[in-house]
Amino acid sequence: MLHHFTRSIAHIALPDKFTYPFHYTPHPLCVMAADEVQVYLQHQAQWQDELQQGKMFGVLIVQTTEGEIGYLAAFSGILAGKNIHPYFVPPIYDLLQPDGFFKKEEEHISAINHRIRELEEDTSYQKCRQALEEETARCSRLLSQAKAKLKAAKELRDCRRQTEQLSESEQAAMIRESQFQKAELKRLERSLKEHLSSLQKETDTYVSQIEALKNERKSRSATLQQQLFEQFRLLNARGEVKDLCSIFAHTVHKIPPAGAGECAAPKLLQYAYFHHYRPVAMAEFWWGDSPKAEIRHHGHYYPACKGKCEPILGHMLQGLEVEENPLLEDNHRTTVLDIIYEDDYLLIVNKPAGMLSVPGKETADSVYSRIRHLYPDATGPLVVHRLDMATSGLLLIAKTKEVHQNLQAQFSNRSIKKRYTALLEGIVSDEEGTIDLPLCLNPLDRPHQIVDKEHGKPAITRYRVLARTESQTLVAFYPLTGRTHQLRVHSAHSLGLHCPIKGDELYGSKADRLYLHAESLEFTHPVSKEKVTIEVKADFTQQWLPQPKAEQSV
């Protein structure tokens, strides 16, 4: 299971610390190991159709107790219908073993599913349901007709009372008529209810059986899932063991998500600890086509998923010296905010790439905190809208609560005009167009967004090509909505432009920065009511479209 490099690695120094799994640049040894795994995959003809559909693989550089350096390989989930393949580390728990409790109980649940389908498709049950539906509709019509007749008779009596001089006997007769018609309606309601009740009982005979089976299935599935989670007993570098239930007990949802513990990273670490190998560095890469909702590029490296792996790796990496999260590096400690426009009511900042708009969970420095320090007496939330940490450009700040509310309203009714410039990896063939792909958060892999036409919120972007080279396209984006990562997903997704923004680590490939810049804002001043237009060109556009750096008009 331990693989030796086919090429010399003597010239490559080992890293000082283990890979921070949620944001990293692959170590050269990981790249070499991944290359060898990919060569192996290319020679597995029997897997090619499945691999083409896409799968995540991982490599772990390890050092044996004798000081030998090698690597382990793993895949996420199941490959070719099996958990175990000689080239890859085994699963933490093989739920597919024929004599295991999982397969046996799975057979019970499958039998329940089969019985449910039989009952739902039973001819007698279908006839009962159809008869109940038809008779319910017929009875409803009869009842509506009777009520309408009763109402018409009442209106006629009321009209006679208002227009005629009625004798006592005539009035008494009208009262008897009203009482009789009401009694008739009650008798009809009772008769129809009894008729439908008999049909309902026939249907309920089947429904009660189906519901009982579904409740049994639900109970068995929950018990099976609990038993399965308890089988995943995960080690860490200190030799401590925790099962999935214990690991996820302190998370928001308390319960492990489906598939937890079956990703490549936990498999690799578990095997290394079990065989007393020292983990040195790790990387995961995608192989095959991208999923329809997510964005994955063949051969690209990706961080571990947060929904499933963050709690697990939080335990498994204890005892290792792990790299710091590079996103927490204070790269702008000495950066002075570039204030492009300011008056008594608002200001506009040219946010540098890599600075947060508002404080994060682990990072206090942000445009908001800087502005709060500069203007301690300012009221309201200050920041009117947000830019991704990696995006540079114009950010609108309100000095008062009233101005903030006014500007937020302009964003809500889409009267504020925004323009972004982005450098894309690839060629956009059309000169302009509109991208309409609804987006929502991937709950198992925050902060990634996915395209979801059923649950996603509307996300619409207009674009215009500004310039092209043989391999890149400079575009202007005009977002009509403001969803998280909207421009990044619309650029990279196969149903969008299919050209990721240069430097987009989430949806493309890493570079020196994310080549996305909010270059123009146009809005109505909340106090003067004059149109304000502010424009600041991105530094990376100078070689494409040389222009003055800043322009503004009021």
TrEMBL record:
MF GO annotations: catalytic activity, acting on RNA; pseudouridine synthase activity; RNA binding
Record bears the keyword Coiled coil: yes
Q: Which Pfam families match?
A: PseudoU_synth_2
Zinc-finger keyword on record: no
Give the GO biological process terms. Answer: enzyme-directed rRNA pseudouridine synthesis
Extract the coiled-coil ranges from the record. 102-149, 182-216
* Superkingdom: Bacteria
PROSITE patterns under this entry?
PSI_RLU (PS01129)
**Alphabetical list of PANTHER family matching this protein:** MITOCHONDRIAL RNA PSEUDOURIDINE SYNTHASE (PTHR21600), RIBOSOMAL LARGE SUBUNIT PSEUDOURIDINE SYNTHASE A (PTHR21600:SF89)
Where in the numbering of this chain does the Pseudouridine synthase RsuA/RluA-like domain appear? 345-493
Record protein name field: RluA family pseudouridine synthase
Record's keyword terms, sorted: Coiled coil
